[in-house]
Design a protein that fits this description.
The chain is of the alpha/beta class and 366 residues long. The chain has three helices and 23 strands. It binds 2-acetamido-2-deoxy-beta-D-glucopyranose (NAG) (2 copies).
């Protein structure tokens, strides 16, 4: 064989190999087309780009692993600054359901199908079989059904966001096996039942947002073992029982929202002498005194204790605090003179009204 022939054959081989490597696997393409077939997006035409052999190339919202060319990300947001939305002068709207065909994309790492307002149906339970899944973000749809029972198998999952849907049923006990989970957002659904007792196993969690559901039972004290937890929002549920005092000992907990529940007992002193700077305990059944534990390093952007059954006086130490932005003690059974000085000089009467017998500025003189 002459050199030019060899050269020619090598070139052909290279071309053949590279075309095999470049196009996405036909099975991935088929899975995406089946996924698309169960959705209807009438206004923007985002699926018009889903044509051609290579689903890694210019398919809107799809990206692939650069080495294996398998589909790695589905990123479809109904609210976006993409030009496609600007041209249409509107936000996205999509109906239909999430096809179990997405489970046939074995390399999927992130699934974002967010803010389409009209997508219904359930979360395909086979999603728990996707070993590389890191992000599942389905916020802002009309998804029903329950969270998959064996969701705990997703060992790489860091973000689970299903907020603003119609999800019902219990939090699956397996959820506490999500050892990589950092961000859990279940807000504004119809979730019932209790928070798993061993919730504290979620050692990587930094945000746990469970607000606006129908969650009952007590707050598991194991939560306080989550070293990185910065934001805990359990508001607008049906939680009862006491506030675990250990929540006040957490290293980085900055926001604690327990408002609008049926929480009873005393406010643990530790909670007011902690890293928490945004504290809402409003609309519960808390009783006893407000602990007199404020000090120079106390710093609060919000303390809302309104609509409880708190008694006694406003603790004197509160004027030692370095900062208190918003304080609401209204609708309790407090009595006595409102301390003078900061933070009281910038607060309005509404922070103190509807108590047993509070007096002094900004209320009437004693
Ligand atoms: C605290 O929670 C109550 C009840 O959910 C809410 O009305 C109030 O606005 C919250 N307070 C602050 C300061 O956000
Ligand atoms: C507040 O907490 C600190 C340590 O976190 C502790 O040393 C101090 O005694 C506590 N203060 C009160 C009044 O409980």
């Amino acid at each position: 064989m002459g050199v030019p022939v060899l050269y020619y054959i090598t070139l052909l081989l290279l071309l053949a190999v590279s075309s095999v490597v470049v196009a996405c696997p036909p099975s991935d393409r088929e899975a995406l087309l089946a996924f698309k077939a169960s959705l209807h997006e009438p206004y923007l035409g985002i699926f018009n780009s889903w044509t051609g052999i290579d689903c890694c190339h210019n398919w809107y919202g799809i990206s692939c692993d650069p080495e294996t060319r398998q589909v790695a990300d589905i990123n479809l947001r109904g609210e976006s600054e993409d030009p496609i939305f600007e041209h249409a002068h509107r936000t996205g709207y999509m109906t239909g359901f999430i096809s179990p065909a997405i489970c046939k994309l074995p390399r999927l790492s992130s699934v974002t199908i967010a803010d389409w307002k009209g997508i219904s149906g359930v979360i395909p339970s086979c999603i728990s079989n996707l070993p590389f899944l890191r992000i599942l973000d389905l916020i802002g749809n009309r998804i029903t059904g329950t969270l998959p029972a064996d969701i705990g198998r997703l060992k790489r999952l860091t973000v689970l966001n299903v907020a603003d849907n119609l999800i019902s049923g219990r939090i699956p006990p397996s959820i506490t096996s999500l050892s990589s989970l950092m961000h859990l957002d279940l807000r504004n659904n119809r979730i019932t039942g209790e928070i798993p007792r061993d919730f504290g196993r979620l050692g990587m969690l930094s945000r746990a947002l469970l607000s606006r559901n129908q969650i009952e039972g007590t707050i598991p004290s194991s939560i306080s073992q989550i070293y990185r937890l910065a934001d805990l929002d359990l508001s607008l549920n049906r939680l009862s029982g006491p506030i675990p005092a250990s929540l006040g000992k957490m290293a980085v907990l900055a926001t604690l929202n327990l408002d609008c529940n049926r929480i009873a007992g005393y406010i643990p002193a530790s909670l007011l002498n902690s890293s928490i700077s945004d504290l809402n305990l409003s609309r519960n059944a808390l009783e006893g005194n407000i602990p007199n534990v404020f000090q120079a390093r106390s710093y609060f952007t919000v303390i809302d204790l309104s609509y409880n059954k708190l008694r006694g006086t406003i603790p004197k130490s509160i004027s030692l605090a370095s900062f208190i932005g918003h304080l609401d003690l209204s609708h309790n059974r407090l009595c006595g003179r409102i301390p003078a000085g900061s933070p009281f000089d910038h607060l309005e009467a509404s922070s103190f009204t509807f108590n047993a017998c509070l007096c002094g500025k900004p209320l009437k003189a004693c």
